[in-house]
Write a structure and sequence with these properties.
alpha+beta, 2 domains, 2 helices, 4 strands
C-alpha cells in the first residue's frame, strides 16, 4: 500500500518543482523582456545620438561655409582698404589743393605770369613746380617771400633757373623763372 503521506510529499515536491520551474521560466521571460527593452532603448539612444551627430556635423559644415564666406568678405575688404585710403587722402587733399590754388591766385602779383604749374617731389615731400615771367627780380623775390610768410602750407621756395628775356614786339625786359615751392605736411605719396 502506498503511503498517502508519500503521495502528498511527491505531489508537494512536484508542485514545488513546478512552482520553481514557473518562477524560472518567468525569470527567463522577464530577463529576456528586460534585455529586449534594454536593446530597444540602446538602439533608440544610438539613433538619437547618430541624429544629433549628423545635426552637429551639418551645423559645423554650415559654420565652415559661413566662415569661408566671411573670410572672402574680409579679403575683399582688405583689397579695398588701399583704394579707400587713396580716396580718403584724395578727398582730404582736395581741400588742401583748393587752399593752395586759392593762395597762389591771392599771392600772385599782377605783373607775374605763370606759364606752368605741376607737382613734384622734393626731399620726400610734395612740392609745386611753377614757371613763368615776372616784371623784375624784385617782384619775383617779393612773390617768393609772400608765399613763405603769408601761407601756412608753403615751405621755403627754391629758385631754379632765372634768366632775363626781352619781348621782341615791345622790347620790354622780363625775368623768366622756375620755382619749386615745398608743401609742408604733404608726403610724396599724398595728393
Amino acid at each position: 500500500m502506498i503511503n498517502i503521506n508519500l503521495i502528498a510529499n511527491r505531489r508537494a515536491k512536484k508542485m514545488r518543482e513546478m512552482t520553481f520551474l514557473r518562477f524560472a521560466i518567468m525569470g527567463v521571460i522577464i530577463v529576456f523582456m528586460a534585455m529586449l527593452f534594454l536593446n530597444l532603448y540602446a538602439l533608440l539612444m544610438q539613433r538619437i545620438a547618430v541624429d544629433q551627430y549628423n545635426v552637429a556635423v551639418q551645423r559645423l559644415e554650415d559654420i565652415q561655409e559661413d566662415e569661408k564666406d566671411f573670410n572672402k568678405i574680409l579679403d575683399e575688404i582688405k583689397e579695398k582698404v588701399p583704394q579707400t585710403n587713396l580716396l580718403e587722402r584724395a578727398q582730404q587733399s582736395q581741400a588742401a589743393w583748393a587752399t593752395i590754388l586759392a593762395d597762389f591766385s591771392r599771392m600772385l602779383p599782377h605783373d607775374v605770369v605763370l606759364t606752368n604749374m605741376s607737382t613734384a617731389i622734393v626731399d620726400k615731400n610734395m612740392g609745386v613746380q611753377i614757371g613763368g615771367y615776372a616784371a623784375d627780380e624784385q617782384t619775383l623775390g617779393q612773390f617768393m617771400i609772400d608765399l613763405r610768410t603769408k601761407t601756412e602750407w608753403a615751405g621755403k621756395p627754391k629758385l631754379g633757373t632765372v634768366s632775363a628775356v626781352e619781348n621782341d614786339l615791345t622790347k620790354e625786359r622780363r625775368v623768366r623763372f622756375d620755382l619749386m615751392v615745398p608743401i609742408m605736411g604733404m608726403m610724396a605719396g599724398d595728393f
